[in-house]
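Renewal narrative, Specific Aim 1. Our central claim is that a sequence can be written position by position from structural information alone. The example that follows is taken directly from our test logs and has not been curated for this report. It begins with the structure tokens describing the chain, in the order in which they were read.
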């Protein structure tokens, strides 16, 4: 049974992982105690902002969109710089170099703003879809990074904020099964993952390939593809 005495804020990008985490939060905290925050950071795949609004509406939660234009001003990565094309194809686990879709400091900034937003609303639980098992090995998705950030936020705001990372050690296939368990599959049909911002998804960028691999290994048809194909 959900603990209705607690409230949670979900960082909702509109992608597969954050959509799954939103429905996880609904199960864990109760629908009346969950809201979402989405960041408009000048991302190339801006269609994900529409996806986030759609998913939040389907889940019946309040959503706030916060603008952060600094990442676009900094540039240097494929998600905020139009001059850089996102790398195609999934990467090898042994590849030490970070992909050009890595936005330095993104999750650190997002979660700091999310924690501040939660603080002003008396919310002590912040949920994010980061995963240490992500193919890219983004350093701001690792458990030790999130634990250090949680401590920093608690000290810096004299708060009891807790960062929840339900997907931290899950494979993509396991996140698909979790989505089924928490009732997120219908909403996943409206989620967006493609780094190129294409609808239907391009199918060849690293994010598309990772999503496809996860559904394939889970033995589940991606509801997004079914919707895109008019099935």
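The sequence written for that structure reads:
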């Amino acid at each position: 049974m959900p603990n209705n005495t607690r409230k949670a804020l979900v960082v909702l990008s509109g992608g597969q992982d954050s959509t799954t985490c939103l429905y996880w939060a609904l199960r864990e905290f109760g629908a009346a105690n969950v809201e979402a925050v989405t960041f408009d950071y000048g991302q190339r795949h801006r269609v994900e902002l529409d996806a986030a609004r759609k998913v939040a509406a389907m889940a019946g939660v309040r959503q706030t969109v916060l603008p952060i234009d600094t990442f676009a001003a900094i540039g240097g990565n494929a998600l905020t710089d139009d001059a850089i094309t996102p790398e195609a194809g999934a990467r090898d686990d042994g590849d030490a170099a970070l992909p050009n879709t890595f936005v330095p400091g993104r999750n650190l900034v997002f979660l700091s703003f999310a924690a501040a937003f939660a603080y002003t609303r008396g919310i002590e639980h912040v949920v994010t879809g980061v995963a240490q098992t992500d193919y890219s090995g983004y350093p701001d998705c690792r458990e030790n990074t999130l634990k250090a950030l949680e401590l920093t936020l608690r000290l810096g705001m004299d708060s009891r904020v807790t960062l929840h990372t339900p997907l931290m050690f899950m494979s993509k296939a396991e996140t698909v099964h979790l989505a089924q368990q928490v009732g997120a599959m219908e909403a996943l049909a409206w989620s967006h993952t493609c780094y190129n911002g294409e609808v239907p998804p391009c199918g060849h960028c690293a994010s598309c390939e990772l999503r496809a691999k996860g559904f394939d290994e889970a033995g589940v048809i991606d509801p997004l593809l079914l919707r895109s194909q008019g099935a």
